[in-house]
Amino acid sequence: MKGEIVLRAVLLFFRLIPFPVIWRVGDGVGFILYRLLKKRSAIGLANLSLAFPDKTEGERSEILKAFWRNFCKDMLETVKFYAYPAAIKGRLVTLVGRERLDALMAQKTGIVVLSAHLGNFPLLCMKLGMEGYPIAVVYGEIHNRFFNPVIPHMMRSTGIEPIFDRPRHACVGRSLSWLRNKGMLFIQVDQNPLVEAGVTVDFFGFKVPTSRGPVSLATRTAAKIIPVFIVRDKNNHHRVIVEEPVALKLEGNGSRHIRENLEALNKVTEDYIRKHPTLWWWVHQRFKMAVKE
């Protein structure tokens, strides 16, 4: 109850704030966090040095500074869009490649939406939900017992079906059921998975553990995998970009085809990060267990 009251007050406040103010505040807070969160910024710079060894230290610092600004704008914007969901269907957020999604929907198949911690990915899910696509997202508890009960309501308010990540077997079961019922399941593959759920594959020239989830779920449900990313333009408008579906390789033994398919998915993700380096979450420890090839 307390969480709902606080949430309503926050949403009312954000409903009154214009987007240009949100962007200016985000830029300012990001400027501060780059200097204040020194440990996180150090992780980001270390990751950038591994991913972009040919760039100068100054170039990598500028990428990280821009990331912090974009990150803060993303977080503030997400609350603003929840407070004012009609804006999601307006000119601030465009869907590019809709025909690819519609073509898969016409096949009446489940769809794994492959993405990453790049850009305002909560807005990506909200856009698909508000456009009427049957999108589901796996979520976990946050460190706030007052807000946890309202998270599913917030997601459903923009057309997103929440799937709680605990217990794990129930989460997997609901995800499989959603795909078998021709729904879309949003999955990100750019964070370190649980040891038993990961396969070591290439990413920026390093072998890193990668979740087998997208491939396993798709093969068990005959679902298609389609990469979808969101990028922020210079005018702070967003483009949700739907790429061509990824054709899975199913021949050979199980472990081999899982590894080959994950390599292909990681390559799609890496290509987007290389094109839009200021939008990716460099500050998480993606390369913590990386091994140079």
Strand order of the largest sheet: 1-9-8-2-5-3-4
What is the number of domains?
Answer: 1
Helix-strand topology string: HHHHEHEHEHEHEEEHEEHE
**Largest sheet data:** 7 strands, mixed
Quick summary:
The chain is an alpha/beta fold. It has helices at 2-16, 19-36, 38-51, 57-83, 98-106, 121-130, 151-156, 168-180, 213-221, 254-275; strands spanning 93-96, 111-115, 135-139, 160-164, 184-188, 198-203, 206-211, 224-232, 238-242, 291-292. The mean pLDDT is 93.
Protein traits:
293 residues, 10 helices, 49% helix
Question: How would you describe this protein?
Answer:
It is a single chain. The protein contains ten helices and ten strands. It has 293 residues and is α/β, with parallel strands linked by helices. It has one domain. A seven-stranded mixed beta sheet has the order 1-9-8-2-5-3-4. Strands 6-7-10 form a three-stranded antiparallel beta sheet, with helices on one face. It is globular and about 55 Å long. The mean pLDDT is 93.
Topology of this structure?
Elements: H1 2-16, H2 19-36, H3 38-51, H4 57-83, E1 93-96, H5 98-106, E2 111-115, H6 121-130, E3 135-139, H7 151-156, E4 160-164, H8 168-180, E5 184-188, E6 198-203, E7 206-211, H9 213-221, E8 224-232, E9 238-242, H10 254-275, E10 291-292
